[in-house]
Amino acid sequence: MSHLTDAARAPYRIENADHDDPNSLEAIVAANPSRRKILVNGLFGLALAPMVASCGGDGNGAGNNVTLPPNTGTAPKPTPTPAPAPSFSVTFNSVPANQNDRVTVPTGYETAVLLKAGDLIEPGVAAFNGSFPTPGQAEKWAGGNHDGMELFAIPNTDANTSGVLAVNFEYPDFNILMSDADVAAVTSNPASATAAQRQLALSAVGVGVVEIAKGADGKWSVVPNSRYNKRYTGNSAYRVGGPAAGLLSNPIKGTLNNCASGRTPWNTYLTCEETTDNYFDPSQPATDYGWVVEIDPFQELAQPTKRTAMGRFDHENTAFMANADRRVAFYMGDDATPGCIYKFVCERAFSATNRAANIDMLDFGQLFVARFNADGTGEWRLLQQGQNGLVVGARDPGNVSQSTTPPTPTVVDFRNQADVLINTKSAARVAGGTVMDRPEWITVAPDNTAIFVALTNNSGRRVTDATNPRVTNRHGHILKMRESGDSPLATTFTWELFLLAGDPALRPGGENLVGNINGDTFSSPDGIRIDPQGRLWVQTDHSVPGTSGVSGVTIDQAFGHNAMFHVDQRTKQSKRFLVGPLGCEITGIAYTPSLTDFFVNIQHPTGNWPIAGEKPRSSTIVVTRTDKQPVGN
Which are the contacts of 522, defined by CB distance < 8 A and separation ≥ 6? Predict the structure, then answer.
């Protein structure tokens, strides 16, 4: 979650505010709403897979079969010596923590900017040229605050040299959209902002889909005027599917706060709404937001659809696990302070040969919430009306972790399954789900033997449990889970604390700031993904500006700018791979099947990046080795 969107939605989540922490965004805004303008102005969130995906993991695996032409010569030729198999060992030299205003990568690597906020996606207008746009112009641009993304293979093409990239735009890059006065109007009192101001802000969120290709020089670029290039914005219309569809607008105006993402085995894109209201246009019903939205990047199946069967909460990402019978489960985190961890199991097997047969897969299935036991076991509690306390007159215990004095339970009526899905947060607590420290990205191992969850932080936690062992959890931790039988259909699992983030140098501020990282330390794990070779990558999102927990030491002074790390699953050794420029969050991970090209998002930079002398802009970059070997060596 971008700290900008956290500030924007703060008035809608005062009940979760960490007022005990005077440095929290919620406390700042609650104490003085005029600070919103200061916050906004002063701080100005997958692998390429074939069209028929493999059954295991996040949909990360992808092959690249090459057929050689027949020998047309008359003389026999010697059998060529086969090229050595590429190495996927992690041997890069760690990048030092730093506060430079550039992207820093190891020696032997290079980066290039692929897609900036304000770049053209759909034809018909000019890209950003220094002047503020009209809403109609911005609707065709790349939006702002690039976050989760997925890369899809185009049939009958080399998957290592072309593909369709879908990118989330979490929040506007306001500095290229409108004046400071207009920004203040939209962010401080959106109900009184003009329709044009709101429309312009909403044009810069949502999703962008672009065809990208690798040139003869090895550089990637967006293919202009491709039939795949498409924008889905906060002003677009979206279908609704699933059990709660009848209680929502249909169509719904807009998608908003599109944070992390996911994909399906039938190669559709899942963009996740990390807000349960429309904070740019409060006239819209709040229940229209907080859903997973399915988009077909090839524009062959249904129109973009909000899938209500997967529940309404502050969605971060989705990650799927499938078995040999093509049964599939999707794992999801609620990026709230605190929030629960969920699993949605589709009712039937998906088709690996007919994409159209999967058009309503996400409308039928069962939604579960995770309950963690202190002995390292856990269970998935079914969120079904009439079961696990989900009845009329149910008592929601509230966010029990945020105060040593339990809150007064509230009465919630679950009359039908639509009520459960619209009020998923409350249903999860009633059913006994464990409230966690901001579950953000989730990733599934390619062989189904592990699920990792990034728990970013929760400085407001006052009551601990086995899975959330630190009060004032300023730096977060990573949890590892394993389904019984390594099955997506399992109803029980085991778990362990994989690592606690922090740094020993912060011990003067308290033991809860130290952590147990082996190697390069970090704060606030957010983006997390296991690539097809089983390598775990972690991206960070510590607040900018923010406190380390030690008086007089900023978070950047303690850890450097936000960064991307490789963490060995066996030794838990952490190696810093990439450091971002001033003010940014590092988020989004995608890659080619060869793993020679990594795509990473630089969100909300504030300095002189990516183009010196121009306004800073969120951007997607490409990271490659200069010798064209797989990333990681």
Answer: 475, 501, 538, 540, 542, 559, 563, 565, 574, 576
Q: How many CB atoms lie within 10 A of CB 247?
A: 16
Residue 408: how many other CB atoms lie within 10 Å = 8
CA proximity to 611, closest of 112, 223, 183: 112
Both tokens of 475, joined, read 């730096």
- Angular region, 268: left φ>0, alpha ψ -120 to 50, beta rest: beta
Tokens at residue 526, please?
């957010």
- Residue by residue, what is the 3-state secondary structure of 535-576? CEEEEECCCCCCECCCCCCEHHHHHCCCEEEEECCCCCEEEE
Cβ within 8 Å of residue 371, ≥6 positions away: 378, 379, 380, 381, 431, 432, 433, 434
Provide the pairing of β-strand 109-116 with 619-625: antiparallel
Tokens 């990650």 found at: 319
Q: Which residues contact 42 (CB under 8 A, 6 or more apart)?
A: none
Which pLDDT tens digit goes with each residue over 65-101? 333 334 444 456 677 777 778 999 999 999 999 999 9
Q: Average pLDDT in the 186-200 region?
A: 96
Separation CA 184–CA 162 (nearest Å): 41
Enumerate residues 6+ apart whose C-beta is below 8 A from 242: 307, 308, 309, 310, 362, 363, 364, 421
Task: Give the Cα-Cα-Cα angle 58, 59, 63 (nearest 5 degrees).
Answer: 135
Tokens 């802009």 correspond to 617
Q: How many beta carbons lie within 10 A of that of residue 467, not counting itself?
A: 24
Nearest to 601 by CA among 593, 592, 610: 610
- Per the DSSP assignment, residues forming a β-bridge with 380 are 370
How far separated are the first and last CA of the chain, in Å rounded? 30
- How far apart are alpha carbons 410 and 366 in whole angstroms? 25
The one-character DSSP state at 606 is: -
Question: In this structure, is the dihedral angle defined by the CA atoms of residues 463, 464, 467 and 473, taken in order, positive or negative?
Answer: positive
Q: What is the pLDDT of residues 268-315, one digit of tens each?
A: 999 999 999 999 999 999 999 999 999 999 999 999 999 999 999 999
> Backbone phi, then psi, for 366, in 5-degree steps?
-120, 140
- Size (the chain), residues: 633
- The string of pLDDT tens digits covering residues 520-574 is 999 999 999 999 999 999 999 998 888 999 999 999 999 999 999 999 999 999 9
Note the pLDDT tens digit of each residue in 364-383. Answer: 999 999 999 999 999 999 99
